[in-house]
Every structure is written in C-alpha cells, then in structure tokens.
Specification:
Number of helices of chain A: 19
Helix content of chain A: 40-55%
Largest sheet of chain B: 22 strands, antiparallel, barrel
Largest sheet of chain A: 2 strands, antiparallel
Oligomer: heterodimer
Number of strands of chain A: 8
Distance between the termini of chain B: 34 Å
Strand order of the largest sheet of chain A: 1-5
Strand content of chain B: over 45%
Structural class of chain B: mainly beta
Structural class of chain A: mainly alpha
Strand content of chain A: 5-15%
Number of strands of chain B: 61
Distance between the termini of chain A: 58 Å
C-alpha cells in the first residue's frame, strides 16, 4: 500500500518484458500464424473466393455479407462484412509479422534461430500482402509494426510494381533464411519457393490478360513466367520432403495433415475450446440432415463419418458439378450427392447438390472438427509449373500426373502454348476446387463475368470484377487512399 | 460553546444562545461537544459549601460538578445570596438544599438547570427587596403541553415570551410552564425541525400547542464532502432528498428511489431483473467513454459509481444530498465531474431507545399484455408469405423441413387439426412475482455512546420462473464519546446476496410448438434447438453469490476551540463467485463440448484514508470563517480468476468438480487491476454579516492510471452567495423569507477509464502446431466483440502515453426564494458545463490491425435549467397538503470530436458534419450503430435514412433510385436526400434524438389526521425511441403491404430483407407516469406505552403511464434503443412499520 503512483503491468506482456528468449520470439511468430485460424479470416476465404465464382452458391438464410458477394452486388462491397473482415485480418497478421521482424531483427538471439524465425515472419507478411493485392488491388503498405497512433495511417504504394517488389523481396528473404523443414501449420523454404512461384504466375498471367494495375506494371511477361517456372521447379525437383499423394482421398484426411501434398496447411484442431482453435469449416459444406451423422462411401467400400449438424452454407452449383468429366475421380470420389445415414451404408439419402468431401472429419466432436483449409498443396505448385513452363515435356509430365491420379487420360499432346495454358488453367478448377483459389484464377485471366453467371447477371464489368473496392472504413480513416 | 453564568440585564442573549445550541444539536460535531458538557457526569455527587455566596457562583460550582449548564432568570437572581452545605448529594437533593428557603424554583430541562423566581402565589417572604421589585403583581404561570401533529409529546421545545424575554423548555412529556407578565404577551415555541409558532397568551392559563414539522427548514444541516453546511449557507447547487417521502416504496437499492426526486437528477431503470441496478446521471452525461455515474459517498466513504448501492439497506438511510455544481462536487476532484450523491445513514437519538420493525410485501404484475401472435394461422400464413416474397420455400406447408421438424400447413392450423398453441409468456413468466423485505433495527443512545443495529432480509422473485434474488444485510453504527475531546465512531456493514439467474427464456418461441411431447420430454425443434425455456430452466445452472463488507472508522478530535481533526479510515471488500453449467443437451456450448462448466471468482477491495482539519471561528461577530484542509489516499485492488472445464464423462457433478472434464480442455484465466489515487484538498467558507457568503475549494489528485507527465491534476472551484433577505431594503418589502443569489464556477475531473491504458499490451492465444498446443503472444488483444451475436473480435493494445484527465468546467447561477412564512419555496438554477479532453476510444484504420485506442480529444457541453417549487398549500392541525414540482431541462451538445482525421471521424454527405458511430450495432440494422456522436448535435442522436412511405410499384421504386429487391413494390421507400438519383449512404441524415427535451415530476403529500397519502408523477418529454423490433412485431406485421392492401405505412413481409436504420423505426418516447401512489396510516397510540409508533402503508409503484408509445414501455436506456423485451412491472406493496 505504498504511496507511489507508478503503474505496474500485471498479467500481460508488452515490448518491455518480451522478446527476451527464443521461446518468446517463437510464440510471437505463432501469434502471427494464429491470425489465420480466426473465424473472421478462415470463413472469409470461402465466402469471398468461392461464393464469388461459378462453383458455389450460398444458402438463402446465410447472412454476413455472403449474399452480396454471391450475387456480385458491387454497390454494397465497400461495406461488405466479409470483405472488411478479411482485409482487417490480413493486416493483423502483417502487424504481428512486423512485430516479429522488428523485434527479432534487433535482438540478441542466436543468428541461426533468428534466421528461421525471421524467414517465417517474412513469409507471412508476403503471403498476406499477396492476398490483399489479389483481392483489393493496391492497398496501404505498412512496413513496420505499429506502436503508436501516428503509425496507424499507412501510405499507399506508388503502383503495383512497388507493392509486388516488396512482396517478392519478402519471399526471397524468407526463402534465403529458411531450410526445408516440415512442421504442420508452419512454413519452410519450400513454401517460400511455392509462394514466389504463385506471385510470379499472378503477375505474368494478369499482365498477359491486361488486368488493371498489372497491365501498367513494369515487368516482362515472359520473364515473369520464367521466374514462376524456376521457383516452382525448385519445389518439384530440388527437395524430397513433399510430393504428390498417390491417391485423392488421403490428401483430405484430417488425420494426415502431414501428408506429402501439404506444403502449407492451416492449423486447427478439434481439441480447441474456442472456434478458431477448432474448426467448423466442415459444417459450412455439409448440410443438416435430421441431426444424424452422415456417412460417405469410400472407393474401398468403407464409409467415412462426418458431422451430424452441418449448416449447408456452401452449395455446389449444377454448372460446376456438370463441368467435371464423368470419370473424374475428383468428382466421383471427392464429391457426393448420396449420403448414408448408417455406418454400414444400409440406408441413404440424396442431397440437393454435389457436396465436396474435402472438409469432413470423422473424428468430429460436436461442432468441433480438425478440418483445415489447404493453403499450398504440392499439386498446385505442379500446375503452376506446368502453366508457367508451357507445353514442354516436363509441363506435360506434371499436368498428366495430376490427371492420371484423377483417373483421366493425358492431355492432347500437341497443344500450342495458349491452349496448353488454358488446359492447365481448367485443370486447376477441378484439382483445387473449393480450396479458395478460384476467384483469383478467374481474375488473373479476366474471365470472372464470362465464367460466373451471377457476375454476368449483376451487370458489372470485367474491370470492376478484377478487384473489390477497399473497405469504406479504411477509406474514411486513411487520407492516403485516393478517392474515386 | 461554554455555558456560563449569563447574568445580564436581558435574558434574551442567553435564550438566543440556547436556541442556537439546540439548532446546532443536529450537527453531529456540536452535539457531541454539547453532550460532553451537558451530560458529562450526571450521576456525580455534588459537594458545595457556601456561605452567603451569590447564587450564580454556587451554580457555577454545580455546573462544574454535575456537568449541567444552568441559567438564571434575571440578573437579580444571580446576586441572590445563598447558604448551602451540600455533601455528596445527588443533583436533586443538592439543588433542594441550595434553594432551601429561597424564592427560587428550578427545573432540569433539555439538559439545563433553569432557575427562576417562584410565583408570587407561593407567598414566600421576600428577603431581597430588589427581587420583589422585579416580580410583577400580574405575573402568572402558563402551563401547557407541546405535541407533534400525531399527538406525540415533543421534548426540548424552547418556549419563550416575546416581550419580556423569558425562556424555558418542555420536558419529556412535552410539558412546560412559563411565567408571563402581561395578557398581551406572546409565547414563541421553537424547535429544530419544526416551524416556529407564536401564540397570544390572552387570559388562558393552559396553552397546548401542536408544532408542525418544518418542510423547508433553513436550519437544516446538509452533508457536503468532508463536512456539513447549513442549508441557508449554501453557495453551491445541491438538493436534499427527504427519505420520508420514499420510505414505503419497495426497492433493492436507494438509487431507484431517487427517480424524479431531485432536479437535474436522471434515473433510468433499464432492467427489471431482481437485483438489477439503474443508470444514474446528474445534469446529463459529460463523458463519452469514461464513467458518467455520479460518485456515491456513504457517511463520508466514497464507495464508487452510483447505480447499485445494494450494500446499504434503503431503510437505514436518513438523508441524501445530491451535489450538482462544481462548487459542491469539486472537493471530490477527479471523481466529482459527474456530481456526487451523499448518503447519510441513521443515527440514534440521544436518550431514546427505539426498536423498529419494518416489513413490506410486494406483488408485481405486468402492466400490459404481451405483444404476440394471437392467431397462429395468421402467423404461419404471414411467415409463408415472407418466405415466398424472399424467394424461399414456405415453411408451413405440412411437411418435414430440413431440420427434420414437421411444420403444419396453414389450413391445418386453421381447422384446429394442429392441436398445439402455446402461450410461451405464460410458461416463461411468473403470474405475480413476490418480493419480501423485512428490517429490524435497534437504536439507542446515552450521554456517551450511541449505536444502531439493523438487519435486513430481502427476497425477490424475478419475472421469469425460478429466477430469484436474495440479500441479507446486517449493519452497525456505533459512536462513543471517549472524553471531552475525542469522539470515535464505527460503521460496519456486512451484506451477502445470492442470485439464481434464469432470465432470457424464449417467450418468443414458436407458439405452434407444445412445451412437452406426449411422453413428457421436451418438445424440441430438432437436435440443434438450444432455446427450450423449460429445458433451460430444469437443466442449466447459473448462480452467483456475493459478499460485501463496508467498514468505516472515524476519529474526531477536538484540538482547541474551533479546531477539529477528523480522520476516517474506510475499507470495502466485495467478493463474488459464479457457478455455471451448460449440460450436454439443450444448450449449444454444452452440446458442442459434451458439457461445459464454469467457475468465476472475483474479489475487489478499496481502502481509503482521509484526514482533515476543520477550523471554525466567528471573528468580531461579523466574520464567520470555516476552513478545512485534508489529505486522502485511496488504493483499490481487484482480482479475478475464471475456470472453464469441458467434456465430461458424466455431467451429474455439473461444475462441482472442475477436474472431471477433459484435462486438455481446462482453461484458466486470471486478472488483477490495481489503482492508486492520492489527493490533497481544502475548503474555505467565509460569511460576512451572514449576508455575503464565499466558498473556495481546491483539490489536487494524482492517479496511477495516467503516465508520468499527466498523473497530477488540480481542481479548483469558487462560489459566492448573497442573502438578499438579510438586507434591509429586502426586509422592507416584507415579502421574502429567503432571497438568496448564488454563483459558482469550478473544475472537476473524470478518470473513469480502466487502468493500464497507457501501457502497451500484448494478447495471449493458443496455437496448434506440430500436434500440440503452444502459447502465442504478440501485439494486440481482444478488447470487445461486435457484429451479430458478438461474433467478431475487436482489437486494441496501442498504448497512449499522453492520456490525461477529462476535465469538466462548470458554472452555475442559482437563486433561492421563500415566501409566505416559508410556505412557498422556489429554487432555480442555470448551469453550463463543458467537458474537454474527453477520454474516448478513437477508431483506427482497418489496415492498422487495431480497432480502437484511447485518446483525449473532443469536447462536450451540457447546459440546462432546473426549477424546484415547493408549496405548503394547506397547513392545519388535521389537514395538510403540500407539493413539490421539479422541472429540469438539459441540452447536450458535442462541441468537438478532435481532429477529424486523427480521430477517425466520418463525414455526413448532406451537412458536412463530422460524426462517429457511438455504441455497438443493433439488430436488424446493418450500420455499425444507430447512434452517433456528431459535432454540434446532442450525444447519441440517431443516424440513418428517411422513409417516405412504401414503394407502391416497381417503377416507383426504381425512380426513387432503389435497386434490386429493394425497388420492388411493398418495400420501404427510402428518400433520396442527396438527390443524386440513387439510394446509397449519402442519403443518411440525423433522424432522431433520444435525449429528452425536459423532465418533470410532481410530488403531492396529503395528510388528514393520521392518514397520509403521497402521489408521485414523473415524466420525460420529447425523447425519441428507436424500436428495432417494429418490423417483425405482431402488432404491425398483419398490417403489411400487399397488392390488395397498398399500405403506405407498413412494408410487405419479406424474409431476407436488409434493414437500414431509418426514421420508420423512430417513435416519440414521451411519457408521464404515475410513478407511485402511497397511502399510509399512523395508528394512534395514546394509551400504548410500549409502542411508540405504528404505521401501515399501501404502495402502488408504476400504476399507470400516459404515453403514445405502442411498445411496452418508453423508458429505455439513454441511447434510446428499444429492442422489445417484455412488459414493465407494476408493483403493489403492503408495509408495516412499528417502533417500540
């Protein structure tokens, strides 16, 4: 009961008492990773990237801005809940990554340790800026962590070149600092290489298709394709930790988050208490059927159990379900209309639409599951390589490897570059279905309105469809953002 | 105040002093001094040996030995020489001995030995010729009895003659006798707390008098911070609330009784849950994000924010003072900005032992019917219509829906084939919740020690079934006069309460569902039905227990004449423990986690140590000075811990063993906040000739909540007052009993933010990686939740080292008038208070990754007038009628919100006004909040669209700039205020103001003999209410637009319609409530020895409300939001109150 008026922090950490040990630094890095698992971020991945495409519709009762995205109600986008949330959470992750970079860079921790922690932090910053520019176009650029009010208003980068150079530089820093080391939920050197490949392919194909912002970029399309090919080639050929999974079903097995395909997978577990720690992605895809458990037939004659209380938010469109080849296992094995209500498959029912089996967890507990969004899969990198390198022998090799796994024949062998790239592009829609990649694919090819009938019906132009507007709340508070 | 042998030519100065002393007796300090002298040693034996000594000298000796002061009638008596040999005698015998054979009588009255010449009739031989010359032949003795309005004798009334000043006082039986010399003499009866009364003597020898308790006694002593002041010497603005008026109204805490009782005091009861608190404001809110609640001070102990002073039994409270202006409140410095409510508890009266028993039983009922569907078929039909209009399959089609529940078709319901129609409000609510409160108290006092003991038991039933609240309080108040100089008192209060919460049950549940299935199990709407009210009631656990201790110790030391030192040590302790369990069925969390158990502990304690010196002196008759200087230290500590446990093999233990859940799911949280406040303060009261009054106060506060450069702040104030009625030119008007002008200015502060806001703060989460959970720590932590159902986190954690105090500068001009022998009193005040450096949370760019941070900017102004009229309309022996009318108007304005960019303000397109959203979102509106803070406008105004009827054709909708579904016929026709041809956010404007234009109340007291009646009306006028639930209210939905019913008032029903905040939802919330009607009867007890007082009362709280508002009740929170809820309660109480 002393009389001094000093305030002692109690029960919380701050810069002053943190970043002292390796464990501190690692937990700060985890804090950055953890941003991904918040509901606001996880669900937005699907609300935005799937609902805005031809693959998915949303159930009528669903709110939270999902309907507006689904019907491309452009006038409402500035205040759309999901677009605001995803935007904000990308920046939360960036700020957390910046805090790691700022503090660890100047710390006395061992160089080896610093290097790998920093590598991951650079990766996370790059990852989020890459998604921001994909979704919103040019966005404010925070290069350091925010510790005072003055730093909360970030400048806009001059153009796409500046922001992409920043992203690429971060990726290179990350790639340089990390080694190949698989830890579920974290990234390593291979992930950084994959991200570089993704970034270069985005630039190359977007500029090639005259997408706003990209078409003004001071980058050479061919060189961008070449870089994309080089970096993805490193993933395909220069390491032995990751590879193609021999069969499809096991890729999506929640018990195998360390399967060969998963270069970067989100980390959630059903043992968590709060949503975000555990996942409920499965419920968004699986419909409610009388509250009983649903089983799905496996190719080996067994049945896999799934949650019994889905919300059925995301409904596969007929258009998309019909676009698959009838013998494509990615439809026959990974999508199902028939569900079974008994474990032995003795009773069954038919759903209204083909639902994806990519997000089911037979070990679910109540609403809790371990279904995790797939952020970078090996097969995606293989397709990036194929698309970048074109109809070479290696290009054909990788795209056909993926087709064979899906039970399909080789691609026609003498496609020209454009047709080959289109074929690979189509392959992506089947291979990466419901994995949050589709919207960006449509945008970099400038085919949103062409592909999604709802976008076409809304009357928006392809230019408008290329990005969502920066949220109104940011516009209101950040004077650096040009007004329209 | 030493009594001495006052033997002057006129007795009057002595009488004057006597009266003065008796008036002062109310004041604790002086009372105790008086007692020390008066009753110091009454039982002491007296020894006197006098030989031809003047009576005065002998009596001085008696005074010294007995402790009783004396006075002599006329200076001749003083010189009377007496012989006495008194050895070891009691006072009685000693006096007999001293006065033996003397023509002098004596009486011990009001603690004073009064000596007077014996009546001439006694024919005692005169030994002193000078004495006989003063004895008038006509002199006779008037006897009589003084009683109060209820016939109870009053002891200690000063009875004096007006022309030839003689004085005496009444004894325990109210009897007096006084000699008078002329028939034209007048007798003056006076007593603190009663109106003076003059009676002509005439030729009667017996004069009985009934004294009336004064309604507006200027000698009343009011409690202010660190001291007391006479009401007549007030310079600031404060209101005293008499507890007699509210003694019969049922209440859990005192605040709810204060509604409408003081001008400028606003009390809003937003919750009807048992044990719920109230919102308290004095002269409007002056802080946006800090606390707006006045400080509540109980017997000198600053307890904290007003709102729910549940620890103190309202029956133990004797008076309440509301300090409103800065002059009155700034002595509390950083906590005075919102005003101060001073509560004084009952103290025993000297020489009396009272045991009182008070009991009250209250029955409640809803004031109105539920607004709900009475025709289930219509409900189903409209639900289908809404679904179809929203392009969704209708539900009531006689089929099993997607959740596996059979929904009957409309005609099935119509025909009665569907057998169920449940009135859920009957299932969920009690018919007549009963409250019982009983208090037993003992009060006793003698010369040295006084104490009060009180015990209270309160049992309150909630409106919801099995929702209960119980509270027990024991309290003691002990004072002891240790010696002439030292007085010690202790107030100790122990209370415990317990709550079983069963609120929020779904009375809005589908009336087509039965409560139970035929087998007695709950009827559930599928497995994911988590809102069955009976399943909740039977299976959930939510109980809380609390313990509170308030302990206050006061040492009062008389140093030298006029200088006293008071030292008060206060301690408050509160602890609560909450048990919750959600079973693995019927509840969402429980189902998801196979049972969820919680155990939350909280403990808070506050110490304060105040020490202050008070010096009072009257210089040269004309300069009355009181100076006070003090120091205070406050330390407060709050700690909490919370345990969560999930996934139980067997839920039978519910939360009794937190270790029985899955170990890896156990969660623990704990927290601590610690704040310190160090203060120095002083006050100077100066009165010149009792005409010109000056009060100056100063306080400096240092708080641990702020950074080094901003820890200290200074809060000065000053007030002047001019008692015009003391000026001859006003006296000559012969109109005013009181005419006083007051002016004050002062600065007070607000530190009402949480601690640690100037420190950077990291968050802690868990992250799953590599097959296990790891702790994740980093910048930003969750500071709140937003969005539908609070689904989205809000992030904070950017420190602001520059945070400083909020400062409120307030001036006040007031006047007090009193006319017609104090029968009409008027008090008027005008004030203006500016609060700047507002502590508020500014919004940050989304790209910062943070939502809000604390800043000081912006300014807010409240100004207003307050008027109190009090009239004693009829004042007769059997009949009395008095009334108090209170009017107050507060105009609130946001002057500034700081720099538009750095504060993150939005800009209104139409008016260019800067604004920000204030408060959280509200269903079903899409905006972040329907309330805004807008520069130049009152706090909390509603912001949204204007609706100009209903779209009657698609063409009309499109022409109005609407698009898509919103342009169809039957939709809201939003006004295109920006006139740009499209309906968008530019069309928003200010659409309503929830702040009342004025508030008024009227309190009428009527008494006929022993029967008294009180009627209290309270009204709030000119406030808007936003009724968010209007769009789906059973009142309005049937009136919907359809092609056949092209309503221009109500839109069509359409599921999936997006709702924008609009003036369609805004209603006038004015109301005039008959707040309370009370009838009491004081049972006459003339022949009762052992019952001193008995009273029975019947009370009706909230019997009727006049309003145009169509919802249940327009009394909503200060932000004007009305979500629906359930009807207001009306309460009937029966009470008995006995004193033995």
């Amino acid at each position: 009961m002393g009389c001094d008026l000093e305030e002692e922090p109690y029960g919380f950490y701050s810069e002053e008492n943190f970043y002292k040990t390796n464990e501190d630094a690692e937990s700060a890095l985890f804090y950055a990773y953890n941003t991904f698992s918040y509901n606001e971020y996880v669900r937005a991945i699907f609300y935005i990237n799937e609902l805005a495409t031809e693959s998915c519709d949303v159930k009528g009762e669903e709110g939270f801005g999902s309907q507006e995205i689904n019907r491309w109600d452009y006038a409402l986008f500035r205040e759309n809940e999901q677009l605001e949330l995803y935007y904000k959470y990308c920046y939360i992750a960036i700020n957390r990554a910046n805090a790691v970079i700022d503090n660890v860079l100047n710390s006395n921790l061992s160089e080896d340790f610093k290097s790998s922690i920093l590598g991951e932090a650079y990766f996370l910053r790059a990852w989020n800026y890459y998604h921001l520019i994909q979704i919103y176009g040019l966005v404010p650029l925070h290069k350091g962590s925010i510790t005072s009010a003055l730093q909360t208003i970030a400048p806009m980068p001059k153009d796409f070149d500046e922001l992409y150079d920043f992203i690429i530089n971060d990726c290179l820093e990350a790639e340089k600092r990390m080694s190949v080391r698989r830890v579920v939920g974290r990234v390593d050197k291979v992930a950084a290489q994959a991200l570089l490949a993704k970034v270069y392919l985005s630039i190359a194909s977007s500029k090639e298709n005259q997408v706003n912002g990209y078409k003004e970029m001071n980058k050479d399309i061919a060189q961008m394709y070449q870089y994309a090919a080089e970096w993805s080639r490193k993933v395909l050929y220069d390491q032995s930790t990751y590879g193609l999974s021999p069969d499809l079903i096991s890729i999506y097995d929640t018990r195998k988050p360390d399967g060969p395909e998963h270069i970067f997978i989100m980390s959630m577990d059903k043992s968590g208490v709060d949503e975000g720690n555990f996942s409920s992605i499965d419920k968004m895809f699986i419909p409610y059927k009388n509250g009983t458990s649903l089983w799905f037939a496996n190719p080996d004659g067994t049945y896999t159990k799934s949650t019994n209380m889905g919300w059925g938010v995301f409904m596969t469109t007929e258009l998309f379900a019909n676009s698959f080849d009838a013998s494509d296992k990615r439809k026959t094995e990974l999508m199902a209309k028939r569900f079974y209500t008994k474990e032995d498959g003795s009773t069954s029912g038919l759903n209204d639409y083909f639902l994806t089996r990519k997000y089911i967890d037979p070990d679910f507990v109540g609403v809790k599951s371990s279904t995790r969004p797939f952020l970078i899969r090996f097969s995606e990198v293989a397709l990036i390589y194929a698309e970048a390198v074109g109809p070479t022998q290696e290009g054909y090799h990788w795209v056909n490897a993926i087709r064979h796994r899906a039970g399909l024949d080789d691609l026609p062998s003498s496609l020209n570059l454009a047709d080959f790239r289109n074929a690979v592009f189509n392959e992506r829609s089947f291979e990466l279905a419901f994995e949050g990649k589709r919207l960006h694919d449509l945008r970099r090819k400038a085919v949103v309105v062409n592909t999604d009938p709802r976008a076409a019906a809304s009357g928006i132009s392809e230019e408008q469809a290329a990005y969502y507007p920066i949220p109104q709340k940011e516009l209101d508070l950040n004077p650096n953002i040009p007004r329209i | 105040m030493i009594f001495y042998e006052y033997v002057k030519d006129r007795v009057w100065p002595l009488a004057f002093r006597c009266i003065l002393v008796m008036k002062l007796a109310v004041c604790i300090t002086f009372l105790t001094i008086f007692q020390v002298l008066a009753h110091h040693s009454s039982a002491q034996k007296i020894n006197i040996s006098a030989h031809n000594q003047p009576l005065a000298k002998v009596m001085k000796s008696v005074q010294d030995q007995s402790g009783y002061p004396f006075f002599l009638y006329g200076k001749e008596l003083a010189k009377l020489s007496v012989n006495a040999n008194v050895q070891n005698m009691e006072l009685q015998r000693a006096m007999e001995e001293i006065l033996r054979d003397q023509p002098v009588g004596w009486v011990l009255s009001a603690g004073t030995i009064i000596l007077k010449p014996l009546p001439i009739e006694k024919k005692v031989a005169s030994t002193t010729p000078s004495l006989t010359t003063t004895m008038q032949k006509q002199e006779r003795i008037i006897n009589g009895k003084v009683t109060d309005a209820y016939g109870q004798p009053i002891r200690g009334v000063t009875v004096s003659t007006v022309q030839v000043s003689k004085v005496t006082s009444t004894d325990e039986g109210g009897n007096y006798s006084i000699p008078v010399s002329f028939e034209s003499e007048m007798l003056l009866f006076s007593m603190v707390g009663f109106d003076k009364q003059e009676v002509p003597v005439g030729n009667s020898d017996i004069i009985d008098v009934v004294l009336k308790e004064s309604m507006d006694n200027l000698d009343e002593v009011l409690v202010v911070g660190y001291g007391t002041i006479k009401k007549k010497d007030l310079t600031g603005s404060m209101t005293n609330v008499k507890t007699e008026d509210i003694q019969d109204i049922p209440a859990n805490s005192i605040e709810s009784l204060l509604q409408g009782r003081a001008a400028g005091l606003q009390i809003v009861k937003t919750s009807q849950d048992p044990g719920a608190g109230t919102t308290v404001r004095i002269r409007g809110g002056s802080s946006l994000r800090g606390s707006n609640s006045p400080l509540i001070v109980v017997d000198g102990f600053p307890i904290g924010d007003a709102g729910n002073l549940k620890q103190i039994n309202p029956a133990d409270i004797v008076s309440i003072e509301v300090l409103k202006d800065a002059s009155a409140s700034s002595i509390y410095g950083s906590r005075g900005a919102n005003g101060v409510i001073m509560v004084t508890t009952k103290k025993a009266k000297n020489g009396q032992t009272d045991i009182s028993i008070k009991h009250q039983t209250t029955l409640s009922q809803f004031t109105s019917e539920f607004i709900q569907w009475t025709d289930p078929a219509l409900m189903a039909q409209l639900d289908n219509e809404a679904k179809i209009n929203g392009n969704m399959p209708p539900l009531y089609v006689g089929a099993v829906n997607s959740t596996g529940i059979y929904f009957p078709a409309v005609d099935e319901i119509q025909s009665g084939a569907w057998p169920h129609f449940t009135d859920w409000s009957k299932v969920v609510f009690r018919d007549n919740p009963v409250n019982n409160t009983s208090t037993i108290s003992l009060a006793t006092a003698n010369d040295k020690t006084s104490f009060n003991l009180s015990a209270n038991n309160l049992l309150q039933q909630g409106s919801y079934i099995r929702d209960n609240y119980g509270k027990q309080i024991v309290s003691s108040n002990i004072r002891h006069q240790f010696n002439k100089y030292l007085n010690i008192s202790a107030f100790n209060n122990l209370s415990k309460d317990n709550r079983r919460t069963n609120t929020g049950l779904a009375y809005w549940r589908n009336p087509l569902w039965p409560v139970y299935n035929e087998d007695g199990s709950y009827f559930l709407e599928g497995n994911a039905d988590y809102s069955h009210p009976m399943a909740w009631t039977d299976n959930r656990k939510n109980t809380a227990k609390g313990t509170d201790i308030i302990s206050s110790w006061l040492l009062d030391l008389q140093l030298i004449s006029g200088l006293s030192l008071k030292s008060q040590l206060n301690y408050k302790y509160g602890a609560s423990i909450q048990d919750r369990f959600e079973p693995d069925r019927y509840t969402e969390t429980g189902t998801n986690n196979k049972g969820a158990a919680y155990l939350d502990n909280w403990m808070g304690q506050v110490y304060t140590a105040d020490t202050y010196l008070t010096y009072q002196k009257l210089f040269k008759q004309n300069h009355d000075l009181t100076a006070m200087l003090g120091h205070s230290y406050e330390y407060s500590l709050a700690r909490s811990s919370a345990m969560e446990s999930y996934n139980f093999k067997n839920g039978a233990l519910n939360n009794e063993n937190m270790a029985s859940g899955s170990p890896e799911l156990n969660r623990h949280r704990n927290g601590q906040t610690e704040t310190k406040l160090l203060s120095y303060f002083g006050r100077l009261n100066y009165a010149f000739k009792d005409k010109y009054l000056l009060t100056l106060t100063m306080r400096s506060d240092g708080s641990s909540k702020f950074s080094t450069n901003h820890k200290w702040a200074y809060f000065p104030s000053g007030a002047v007052s001019w008692k015009l009625h003391q000026e001859q030119f006003i006296k000559d008007l012969n109109l005013f009993d009181e005419f006083k002008l007051r002016a004050s200015y002062g600065i007070s502060g607000n530190q009402g933010i949480s601690p640690y806001q100037t420190l950077s703060r990291y968050g802690i989460e868990t992250f799953y990686t590599d097959g296990g959970w790891s702790t994740a720590i980093g910048p930003g932590y969750v500071i709140g939740y937003t969005g539908v159902g609070g689904r989205y986190k809000e992030w904070g954690g950017i420190p602001n080292k520059d945070l400083r105090w909020e400062t409120t500068a307030q001036y006040n001009f007031g006047a007090d008038f009193s006319f017609f022998n104090n029968r009409l009193g008027v008090t008027v005040d005008y004030y203006s208070k500016n609060t700047f450096d507002l502590l508020r949370e500014r919004y940050l760019t989304l790209s910062s990754g943070y939502d809000r941070m604390w800043v000081n900017d912006g300014e807010i102004n409240n100004k207003g007038i307050e008027l109190t009229l009090h009239g004693d309309i009829i004042r007769k022996r059997d009949w009395e009628l008095s009334g108090t009318f209170i009017f107050s108007r507060n105009v609130n304005k946001v002057v500034s919100l700081g720099n538009a960019i750095s504060s993150g303000l939005n800009r209104d397109f139409l008016s260019d006004t800067y604004y920000e959203y204030y408060g959280g979102g509200m269903d079903p509106f899409r905006e972040p909040s329907p309330n805004i803070l807008a520069v130049g406008l009152p706090v909390n105004v509603f912001y949204g669209y204007r609706v100009d009827g209903i779209v009657q054709s698609d063409r009309e909708g499109e022409a109005a700039g609407l698009v898509g579904a919103e342009a169809r016929a039957g939709e809201f026709l939003y006004t295109d205020l920006s006139q740009d041809g499209v309906f968008d956010t530019k069309d928003r404007t200010v659409i309503g103001d929830p702040n009342p234009d004025f508030m008024a109340s009227l309190n009428l007291n009527l008494r006929y003999k022993n029967l008294d009646m009180n009627v209290f009306l309270n009204g709030v006028f000119g406030n808007d209410v936003l009724w968010s639930g209007m769009y789906n209210s059973a009142l309005y939905v049937p009136l919907r637009w359809t092609p056949d019913n092209p309503s221009n008032e109500y839109p069509s029903v359409r599921q999936g319609r997006l709702h924008y905040t609009s003036d369609w939802f805004i209603k006038d919330g004015s109301f005039l409530r008959i707040q309370n009607v009370n009838v009491g009867y004081r049972i006459p007890l003339e022949n009762q020895k052992w019952v001193k007082q008995a009273r029975i009362s019947i009370n009706a709280e909230n019997p009727y409300t006049f309003t145009k508002f169509e919802g249940y009740d327009p009394e909503v929170g200060l932000n004007g939001r009305y979500g629906g809820g359930y009807p207001k309660l009306r309460m009937f109480s029966f009470g008995v109150d006995f004193t033995f």
